[in-house]
Amino acid sequence: MIKIHMFLAGYGDSLLVQVEKKENTTVNLMIDCGLFYKNNILPNLKRLLKDQTVNRFIITHYDKDHIQSASKFLEDNGKYKDGSIAKIEQVWLNTFRHLQFSKRNTEELSSEEVTKVKSYISETSFESNTEIIEGDIGAKQATTLGAKILEKKYPWNIDSKGEAICIENLQEVNITEDVRLYLLSPNKKSLQNLESEFLSKLSEMGLNPNTEAIFDDAFELFNLNMKEKEKEKVKEKVNDGNISSSCIPEINSKSIKILSKGKGYEKDTSFGNGSSISFILETEDKKILFLADAFAEDVIDELKKRYPDSSEYPIFFDAIKTSHHGSFKNNSPELFKIIDSDFFLFSTNGNHPCGHKHPDVETISCIINRLLPKKILKRNLIFNYELDHLKNFNNEELKKEFKYEIKAQIETKI
User: Fold this and answer.
1) Is the domain covering 2-413 a CATH 3.40.50.790 domain?
2) Dihedral angle sign, alpha carbons of residues 174, 175, 179, 183
3) Sign (positive/negative) of CA torsion 203, 206, 210, 215?
């Protein structure tokens, strides 16, 4: 049995995946550590892990709703050998030290250069602290993640031999003999794009980075600040009337069929989301898709390589954790032509600070307006919160016509 726990992490992600094996052992994957740590994430981790081993702590990418509490969790867990909450075998996280696509400066930083980097970190930390989710975790603490991993001596990206976790460096990992991960994203190009943006920012300050850890801190803050600027742009569009944050189309049989056609689909172009770690978890008899905030196009490309026989499409997964909380920009109609499941999982409270109402109704429509695979009778849409903007989908006639069910629950057994 596989248990997937989607903790109440606000509009973010914090998952614990427990693969219960026949010999009464459990493989634990912790995926991200987002918002509302003190009252939700931490108590659940203590309850569920009970001094067990976290085989992989996968921090998918730098976005506040995915990493906000990760540094605090590692602080509370203590040093690698201690593991007061759980022993963590290995952390997956791509920070600047792993993006070695451009040559690094081999010289030590001058005192003036060190001052410039520290000043940037201080200023960017202040700029990124525009939204306080919890009083005990501010932006600066949330963005000392790389430093915390080093301080506590956690094994870091060992599966990729200390390099970036990406499909060019790592295709599959055997956690145990019968529990495997198959990487779908990111690819090298996406990480290069992110690295280039950061190097451009450093160049503006007259800095040529070396391998010192201080640049990891700057890189983390750069990513979060870039996200904050993207949010501000979206807010401006909402205020200008170019994007409606509250106008949800009327949901009925006709509108679902129209929305599922995907008219107006625009793919995500965020460098941060493009760097997301997404993968397939496969055991002896089950396979589950975890998509983080990955681009649909990247996922499609890798799935087609892994499953080249198009006559088998859509590929059936025992569960699918939808990308980017169900955002239509990351869940294209094309994606749902090649994947399907009887369990679709959504982690969000629907209250994104930009005004987004995730998941988008287009995504839900694309999922349900399809023929069912022969092996299932209905699709289950699982949410960790009850979402008001989707209440019209909770209609008995629609559920009967499109053969789906809606459930709000934290734990799903597969």
Assistant:
1) no
2) negative
3) negative
